[in-house]
Write a structure and sequence with these properties.
- By secondary structure, the protein is mainly beta.
- The protein is built from no helices and 5 strands.
- β3 and β4 form a beta hairpin.
- The two termini are 18 Å apart.
């Protein structure tokens, strides 16, 4: 179960250490995807919202996020 829309990150929680982004993808129906870790958001491009999240069914469907220096030269997982 995902946190509710508008949930906040506890920066003192051990799992938040080193966190550079947290996108829950639970906005449902809007074209932006909000980052709970920092004041930035992603742009949803051609993907479709379903009851369980975003659907990427091939082609040019993606979520574009602003550049963050923490990603430069570092491995990361979405």
């Amino acid at each position: 179960m995902k946190p509710r829309l508008g949930a906040k990150i506890n920066p003192r929680h051990p799992l938040a250490k080193g966190l550079v982004g947290c996108w829950l993808m639970n906005e449902g129906g809007v074209s932006r995807n909000f980052d709970l870790a920092k004041p930035s958001s992603g742009q949803i491009v051609s993907a479709s919202w379903t009851p369980t999240g975003l659907m990427f069914d091939g082609g040019e469907k993606y979520v574009s996020f602003p550049h963050q220096r923490a990603f430069d030269g570092n491995a990361f997982t979405f």
